[in-house]
């Protein structure tokens, strides 16, 4: 027997209050503190009590509240069997014919030692038998959960002193006569409390019952007194990881000891006991490269930290940037008998920008046709960092060779390639080659000890391909001013078109594309334009004095390229149109008092000064007795009058109109005048004379008849 495991902490209350000569009946010490290191073994002496009835101590009977203990007549408290579960308190009842007293034994479990020993010297204020003698003493009873048959099992005892003969001890409360009913019962005479079935601490950790004594008629004599039944935990729950999935992140290259994540498991068992004290451990790491023990878990706190060196924690050299750990939690503070729960912790190694993008080639080649725009070449780079991040994404810059801003480079977001494109068309004849210097960087900055090296720049050699370009006229439009009467075959202009393909020595031939009036000829070789017909400013093809033709210049490339130029001739007016009068006929009544015949207007298709003022004249009239007179009204109009009435007839009056051009042009027109008889409202203009005579003779005849009849 391990006596050293027993420690009587203190002897608190020594009831030698007055002096040594006066005998105090009862226990000499009422409270004992005992420390239980591991367990009580069968037949172990727990402590010695001293009871004195001050009358010789004959027929003293000891009763213990816990059936697993007994007190020998000499006062030794002995364990009756091996007791591993926690027992918190024992009451010892001693009876002799002369006196009756109770002592309390407090057993401090291993876990409670610390806090309880602080209070060990304090006198509990509520010690029942210090104030008055209680008839019922119901020490709390502790029962391990999950007990096995047989049931019922005696688990404790209610001690009743000064018992009235025939009285009965009654027990009630939740667990006896209230739901859950029938779990506990009491022997009405002996006070032995028994349990009828196995208990589950995780369902009900304690029961609050009442005890009383009744007489034969059921009337309460003493009580009720509380009886607490505590269910002692057994380790019947395994730890559970309840909050998965467990995913932690750690940056590559993190220093040893960096905390990655925290694992915590739950154990339903009594948290004040080892049954719920967990210890964590990593069972397995996958993959196990480069080291099988890259992480460590704090056994008590569950924190997972890195133990691998920062250099090995390199996302780019690891076979996978993700580790799986099987983590175990074991209760009983990790002892072999503990129950185990496991979970998987996933650890992701996050990328740092520790690799610059590098061109796959030092020099790229591209060819592009002159005059076109668009992507020429895709520049490829490699970056070992995580493609989902700015540590991978490339940003390209043209750092040399782009003075005309003809080139741009943009990142293809899918492939990370640099798409180099022409944005302003290139000219082969200006420069057939371009060399660009391109640099590439990441969107995110590199970590401080890594830099962009020479592989992060590359040159691009661009070859411009010649294409057959159209000849261009100089100038365009081409304008000349000519008089409209120039001779047929006159040379008007020599066009000049040049081919932009200056390096190809192409020859150009000319032709006429549009010449609506058909006036022009162009020498196909030297571009000299001459006229093939007279020009006419008054032609309907002339708009606003200008005749417009389109000229082609065709090179001898393959295929030939054609340029178009506009040729405009501004035509200067010359007096090439005679004026004309309107109207050319009129009538007048033979006996009219108003001798006005008609007002003539004149027009001319030429421009000033080749048009008005016009001069109106009548051709010379024979004889002295003039019958007609023409009077100029203004620049464009003249009035024809009769000097006296004429007989009914048709008269043709020769009118000449002359414009102001130099030299002037004259138009002689016969104005046909009918003299009609206008009787009442009827008008008769039929001629009385022979209609076959020529107009002029008729006129003469008429005139002579005027004079001689
Ligand atoms: C009680 O415990 C002792 C010592 O641990 C052991 O030798 C003995 O066999 C146990 N008795 C029973 C009944 O388990
Ligand atoms: C460049 O890449 C783009 C997108 O993939 C593609 O459409 C284009 O044809 C490529 N250009 C060249 C010149 O390879
Ligand atoms: C115009 O000039 C060409 C020569 O350039 C000549 O052959 C042609 O006869 C000329 N046309 C006229 C109408 O004179
Ligand atoms: C044609 O025009 C170009 C450009 O203006 C000029 O260089 C060239 O001398 C001209 N040729 C002739 C024949 O006038
Ligand atoms: C073009 O050729 C024609 C015919 O040979 C000639 O009359 C004309 O003067 C030439 N033009 C020029 C600008 O030499
Ligand atoms: C006609 O030509 C003149 C000068 O040449 C110009 O001011 C005017 O706008 C032109 N009118 C039209 C309709 O083209
Ligand atoms: C003269 O005038 C008449 C009418 O007034 C006209 O029909 C004719 O064409 C003119 N002659 C000329 C040569 O213009
Ligand atoms: C000339 O006289 C005619 C007839 O009286 C008239 O209709 C016309 O408007 C005049 N013209 C001018 C320019 O005055």
Number of strands: 53
| CATH homologous superfamily placement of the largest domain | Cadherins
Radius of gyration: 67 Å
Topology-level CATH name of the largest domain: Immunoglobulin-like
Helix content: under 10%
Q: How many structural domains are formed by the residues?
A: 6
| Average predicted confidence as pLDDT | 83
| Main sheet characteristics | 5 strands, mixed
* Derived structural class: mainly beta
General form: elongated
CATH architecture of the largest domain: Sandwich
Strand content: 35-45%
Main sheet strand line-up: 1-3-10-9-6
Regions with little confidence, pLDDT below 50 for 5+ residues: 1-20, 111-132, 688-709
Distance between the termini: 191 Å
CATH class of the largest domain: Mainly Beta
How many helical elements? 3
Which ligands does the model contain, each kind named once? 2-acetamido-2-deoxy-beta-D-glucopyranose
Can you tell me about this structure?
With 709 residues, the chain is mainly beta. It has six domains: 27-108, Sandwich (Immunoglobulin-like); 136-232, Cadherins (Immunoglobulin-like, Sandwich); 240-350, Cadherins (Immunoglobulin-like, Sandwich); 363-461, Cadherins (Immunoglobulin-like), CATH 2.60.40.60; 472-572, Cadherins (Immunoglobulin-like); 580-684, Immunoglobulin-like (Sandwich), CATH 2.60.40.60. 4% of the residues lie in helices and 42% in strands. The strands form 16 sheets. The protein has a five-stranded mixed beta sheet with strand order 1-3-10-9-6. Strands 46, 48, 51, 52 and 53 form a five-stranded mixed beta sheet that branches. The model is unreliable at 1-20, 111-132 and 688-709 (pLDDT under 50). The structure holds 2-acetamido-2-deoxy-beta-D-glucopyranose (NAG) (8 copies). One 2-acetamido-2-deoxy-beta-D-glucopyranose (NAG) binds next to strand 42.
